[in-house]
Automatic annotation (TrEMBL):
This is Bifunctional protein PyrR. Coiled coil: none annotated. The gene is pyrR. GO terms for molecular function: uracil phosphoribosyltransferase activity. It catalyses: UMP + diphosphate = 5-phospho-alpha-D-ribose 1-diphosphate + uracil. It comes from Calditerrivibrio nitroreducens (strain DSM 19672 / NBRC 101217 / Yu37-1).
């Protein structure tokens, strides 16, 4: 296996600032919004984007974290006893604009599961989807509203997002198998 870095800490930081500005522009004067990160790395990215929005807009957005484990369509295939990470939404999503954040979009199935999970908590006014990396290969008709970086991949390749809070460093690599 060969692994090649495609984003370093500085590049990830710059992308998150750009994505934050895109979100600010999209929501304009709407103050009834919240960020929801898909656990695990999407949750960390949601915290970072919230900090950037607070810095640039002087408005601290509410942040929630979504565990999509029980909404996965491959639940019976991933493990006999899947590990639940727990959802943490300490606000009413009804009528809010939800900014859904994840690290990588691939087939679209994770996002579909996240949409189902969100709807179980209420009916938001709108959901905007943000992904740090879009690697293509959709199996469902789901596209992010904002993407940090498009990384065309082969189906055999893997994108690894490492974030300091979990992995001790910030880096995105592409892993070529074989």
């Amino acid at each position: 296996m060969m692994e090649k870095e495609i984003l370093n800490k500085h590049e990830i930081d710059n992308i998150l600032v750009r994505l934050s500005f895109q979100i600010i522009e999209k929501i304009k004067d709407d103050t009834n919004f919240a960020l929801v990160g898909i656990k695990r790395r999407g949750a960390i990215l949601a915290d970072r984007v919230a900090s950037a929005i607070e810095k640039f807009k002087s408005l601290k957005p509410e942040v929630g974290y979504l565990d999509i484990t029980l909404y996965r369509d491959d639940l019976t295939e991933i493990a006999e006893f899947p590990k639940l990470l727990g959802t943490d939404l300490n606000f009413d999503i009804k009528g809010k604009t939800i900014i859904l954040i994840d690290d990588v979009i691939f087939t679209g199935r994770t996002v579909r599961a996240a949409l189902d999970a969100i709807i179980d908590y209420g009916r938001p006014k709108k959901i905007i989807f943000v992904a740090l990396i879009d690697r293509g290969h959709r199996e469902l008709p789901i596209q992010p509203d904002f993407v940090g970086k498009y990384v065309p991949t082969n189906i055999e390749e893997k994108i690894n997002v490492k974030l300091h809070e979990l992995d001790g460093l910030d880096s995105v690599t592409i892993e070529k198998r074989g």
